[in-house]
Design a protein that fits this description.
elongated; Tc1-like_DDE_dom; alpha/beta; Transposase_5; Nucleotidyltransferase, domain 5; 56% helix; six-stranded mixed β-sheet; 3 domains; Homeodomain-like_sf; 19 helices; Transposase
C-alpha cells in the first residue's frame, strides 16, 4: 500500500479524514471476512488476529504517507495538527497491542538520513544503536520477506545494522559484554546470607560471602544485592513484644476497631518524655559527657489541642504522678473539654497502674482507657514528641532552664489542626495492628 504523490499537497488536517477512511474501510473489510468465518471480532481480537493486518495498515497507510511528506509540512504545521494526527497512531496502538513509533521519531529519523545523504559521507567506527522506529520497521519488513537492502533503505540505516539486528533477534541473545564473575550458585549463597543476617551492613556481608570462596569486590556484592531487590536501610527501633503482649494488642485493637473519630476525640492522651541537652545537638562532631543534664516532662493532648506541660523534678512514682494529675491534668481537662465528659489515656507504667493511682481516678470519677503494654505506636502523643524534637534540632540550650524554655516554646507551636489529624489517624492505627496481628506497626 504505497502513498500517492498527491498526498504531499494535503495539509495534515485535510489528510486525517482520508487516512481515517482507509482505516475504517480496512477494519470493516476484516470484520466482514470474520463474519463469513463465523467468528466474532472479539474472538479475533483475543486471538490477536488483527496484529498483522494493523501492522500492514500502519506501515502502508500512515507511515508511508508520513515518511514521504512529513519533512515537507512537519516543520510548518502547528502542535494541534500533530496531536490530531497522533490520535490515529494511538488508536492503532490500542487495536494492535504493540508499540508504534511516534510522528516526531519518524521526522527525526528522516531528517537525519537526509542530512547524511546531502553531506555525502557515513559515520565511521561504532555507530549508534537503532532507534525504536528503525527496529520496528526492520522487524515488520523482515516478517514480510523483504531483503536486507530494501529494509535498510526504508529504515534509513546501513545494511550491516539490519543484518546484526536480525541475527541478534534470531539467536535470542542480547548485547555482548564481560562475563559475570559470580555464578548462580554464588548468588544464591549471597541471597541466603542476606536473609539470615538482615541487620548486617554491606561490608560484613561481603566478608562473609568471600569467606565462602567467592572472588568478588565489595562493589560487586552491593550490585548483586541491589539486583536481588535488597536495599540499605536504617532499621526502625520498636519495643520488644512477646507473644502474650501481641495477643493483648490484637484483642484490644479488635475491641476498638468500631470506634469512630468522634469517639476518639473524647479521649485525652498523655505521656512522659525525658529530654537531654546532648540529644538536641545535631552537629556531626559533638562533645559527649557521661551524665548529660536532662528533664522529665509530662504532656497531654486531645482533638482540641495540647495541654500545658508539666516538668517533673524527681523520679516518677505513684505520689508524684498523682500530684501531676491533680495540678496539671485536671486544669488541662477543664481547658480542653469544659463540662463535657472525657476518657483519660495512660500507659501501664508502674506509677500509672499502682493501686493508689487507680483509687485516685475512682474518687474523681474519671474513666481510664485500658491500654496494651509496649504500644507507643498507638499513642498520638509520641508523634507530638517527634515534632518537638525535630523543631528543636537547631536549638542550643546551655543548661536545664534554657532546655525547659525551649521545650515549652516549641510545644506551644503545635496547632489544634495537627492534633485533630493525629486523632483522626486512630482508626488507621488500629487497622494496622489488626493487619500485623499484634506486631509493631509503622506509626
Amino acid at each position: 500500500m504505497s502513498s500517492p504523490s498527491c498526498f504531499k499537497d494535503y495539509h495534515p488536517v485535510a489528510l486525517i479524514p482520508i487516512v481515517m477512511k482507509c482505516f475504517e474501510r480496512l477494519v470493516m473489510q476484516h470484520i466482514k471476512s470474520a463474519a463469513l468465518a463465523k467468528k466474532t471480532p472479539t474472538e479475533l481480537r483475543r486471538a490477536r488476529a488483527l496484529v498483522p493486518i494493523m501492522c500492514t495498515f500502519y506501515r502502508g497507510t500512515i507511515e508511508s504517507i508520513l515518511t514521504s511528506c512529513i519533512t515537507v509540512w512537519c516543520g510548518a504545521c502547528n502542535v494541534s495538527c500533530r496531536k490530531t494526527l497522533q490520535c490515529i497512531v494511538r488508536a492503532a496502538k490500542k487495536i494492535v497491542g504493540i508499540s508504534l513509533p511516534f510522528l516526531q521519531d519518524i521526522n527525526s529519523t528522516r531528517l537525519t538520513c537526509k542530512a547524511l545523504c546531502i553531506a555525502g559521507y557515513t559515520i565511521m567506527g561504532k555507530t549508534a544503536d537503532l532507534t525504536v522506529v528503525q527496529k520496528t520497521t526492520t522487524d515488520t519488513l523482515h516478517k514480510e520477506g523483504k531483503t536486507q537492502k530494501v529494509i535498510a533503505k526504508e529504515a534509513g540505516c546501513s545494511q550491516s545494522s539490519v543484518s546484526k539486528h536480525i541475527n541478534r533477534e534470531a539467536k535470542g541473545r542480547k548485547r555482548c559484554g564481560r562475563k559475570k564473575c559470580t555464578s548462580n550458585r554464588d548468588n544464591h549463597t549471597l541471597e541466603r546470607t542476606v536473609k539470615q543476617n538482615p541487620f548486617k551492613n554491606v561490608g560484613e556481608i561481603h566478608k562473609e560471602w568471600t569467606a565462602a570462596g567467592v572472588s568478588a569486590s565489595r562493589a560487586t556484592t552491593h550490585r548483586r544485592m541491589q539486583d536481588m531487590g535488597f536495599s540499605c536501610r536504617i532499621p526502625c527501633v520498636k519495643p520488644l513484644l512477646n507473644n502474650r503482649q501481641r495477643q493483648k494488642r490484637l484483642a484490644w485493637a479488635k475491641d476498638k476497631k468500631d470506634w469512630t473519630a468522634a469517639e476518639w476525640s473524647k479521649v485525652m492522651f498523655s505521656d512522659e518524655r525525658s529530654q537531654s541537652l546532648e540529644e538536641e545537638n545535631p552537629r556531626c562532631l559533638r562533645s559527649s559527657v557521661k551524665f548529660p543534664q536532662s528533664v522529665m516532662v509530662w504532656g497531654a493532648m486531645s482533638s482540641a489541642g495540647v495541654a500545658p506541660l508539666c516538668f517533673l523534678r524527681s523520679k516518677v512514682n505513684a505520689a508524684v504522678y498523682q500530684d501531676v494529675l491533680e495540678h496539671s491534668m485536671l486544669p488541662a481537662a477543664d481547658q480542653l473539654y469544659g463540662d463535657a465528659d472525657f476518657i483519660f489515656q495512660q500507659d501501664v507504667a508502674p506509677a500509672h497502674s499502682a493501686k493508689a493511682t487507680s483509687t485516685w481516678f475512682k474518687d474523681h470519677g474519671i474513666p481510664v482507657l485500658n491500654w496494651p503494654a509496649n504500644s507507643p505506636d498507638l499513642n498520638p502523643v509520641e508523634n507530638l514528641w517527634g515534632i518537638v524534637k525535630r523543631k528543636m534540632r537547631h536549638a542550643r540550650p546551655n543548661n536545664a532552664e534554657e532546655l525547659k524554655a525551649t521545650i515549652r516554646a516549641t510545644w506551644a507551636l503545635i496547632t489544634p489542626e495537627q492534633c485533630h489529624r493525629l486523632i483522626d489517624s486512630m482508626p488507621r492505627r488500629i487497622a494496622a495492628v489488626i493487619q500485623a496481628k499484634g506486631a509493631p506497626t509503622k506509626h
